[in-house]
């Protein structure tokens, strides 16, 4: 009857008075034993969320593109079946090491890791050689659908995604992430003024920009291909561009010289916020493409622009109802104003978006 069972070498543990098991499962076995609830079943009758298939290709590409470096956290699953654990020794250190036997008729239900499971299935189609590699799986004995649903809630209740900034800081595969970090260490307006852990900056923080804001703005400036190596000349361009603005904008010169606090700039000026930095990157991309050899000489209008938050030209663009806005439309509308200030033409899409601004707002924008 062994042919009708799955057998795993397992470690046994205890949580909340219940046994659970940790096994190493070959990747090629993952799609065969772990099945999802049908998507058309109502949520109250399922034990997990509906699979978001848009996420699967990205995770699968990550596995295929990094066959010697990819890493996965454990999949957590419940087993509804007659499970048997046979320890190597009845007592001592190996009493919790043994063989876990699970009938093939048992029901396996993923509590955490359904997108990893789907991505593994796709990756195996592209590279079957990874099939004998393993992923750790934590098995709980299912006492009914009610417990599986509670397990899903418990596993996700306290899960916190890392911030974009710290993700960029630690990312060694994304060349632009490394460029953003290098800029934060070399460009005067970023040096010592970059928040590398958080995506938002508190009112009293001595930091001016987040690392994620530098990343987004530099991506908008250079517009490299995703995952492609950033040429040295592009890095030099980004370094020169942001450094030039640090010399040009008077308030930026003051904070570089530590003559004004970051908190004061954030409370009074639009250019001390990520939405403006991103918008400058967008406008800068057009400027550099239009004047590749002497773009420096065309930056001067940004020095005389009224960056004060009290300037009503920013309402409906970088600001809504007196508050800074991070929305994508706000970024683009702010970039439109900067491009007009620099004497640059708007694209057809930008012109269409500009038409959404009321006539009064348009007039204010040109003040």
TrEMBL record:
Protein name: DNA sulfur modification protein DndB
Pfam families found in the cross-reference section: DndB
Origin superkingdom: Bacteria
Organism expressing this protein natively: Candidatus Viridilinea halotolerans
CDD domains xref list: dndB
InterPro entries the record matches: DGQHR-contain_dom, DNA_S_mod_DndB
